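Key idea: predict the complex, not the pieces.
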Amino acid sequence: MTERLDAQFAFLREADKLKSILRASCLIDGSRHENSAEHSWHIMLYALVLSEQAAPGVDINRVLKMLLIHDIVEIDAGDAPIHGNVDHAAMAAKEAAAADRLFRLLPSDQAESFRALWGEFEAAESPDAIHAKSIDRLQTPIANLVTGGGSWKDYDVTLEQLEARVGVPVKRGLPKVWAWLLPKLQTFFAARERG
Amino acid sequence: MTERLDAQFAFLREADKLKSILRASCLIDGSRHENSAEHSWHIMLYALVLSEQAAPGVDINRVLKMLLIHDIVEIDAGDAPIHGNVDHAAMAAKEAAAADRLFRLLPSDQAESFRALWGEFEAAESPDAIHAKSIDRLQTPIANLVTGGGSWKDYDVTLEQLEARVGVPVKRGLPKVWAWLLPKLQTFFAARERG
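Result:
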């Protein structure tokens, strides 16, 4: 019993480091870069508010748990900006090693179930994972639209890139939300080209 | 449909401000104060890892949702440090007004259900709310133990105060965790008295 709690709290203490992993995106007020812990909180709120948009068969409670743990690997592997030039195979290997180390801080039964849930999210094949991935991709475009471009400017992103890297996964899980968002993106990028 | 999404995203954008509400507690590495958004993420992770400690009848999925939204009122009302001198009636009124304004950004059906879930958490009477409150109280003592006192030093907290303000709610929802934590707290405060 005591050993089990010792292991659980060792994991929970280690998880504190996610608050120091910075993402490419900024807060909406522009004051600083966003970290992966507060990002994880925010996209869980997205998932709760937009739960009515989930495809039949999606279990929002499982989606919330996926989003809760999905970025913990970044404690060891860092954040790979979606619009950066990333060696995806190398990054996947780094993240898998991070998942092994970090989840194994937990008692073995929990280590296995957390690792499996993270693996399911990464594979993006199950209905829950497809939905979770589209929620995950949605927050940055919303913030960038409000802040006049945000991380799109830093990475010189075009509408075509955005449609490929963000549009494809968002449309897969949240087609109506993408239909709502796309005209706003088109307007923004058209104004930028003129301007 | 479009109006509904407009309202939902207005709420989700406003929620971004929780990332700028600072708490009395610091990150475990001591680098800065913690904000309420990343705190909310962290205690949801606590709730997931410690779900086996929940009393019979507690629904962890509801607990996670409570913890996800429990601090949003701080966007308007600010964070009231647990060991600070706070006018609790004035704070409760401020938080209720904040809940009204913030949740009403959502479509009315969601505004009602979020407001009700937040009210249930605040009342701390239902099994889910009792459990959520004890999880919420647990993170700061864990961080303060690791960091050599943390916010206990800033507020000159004694073991007796800690037992009253943290021990009572934690013991209510997580008696075995409190039994695990109390000897560590006693050792810490005894060492501090010896000095």
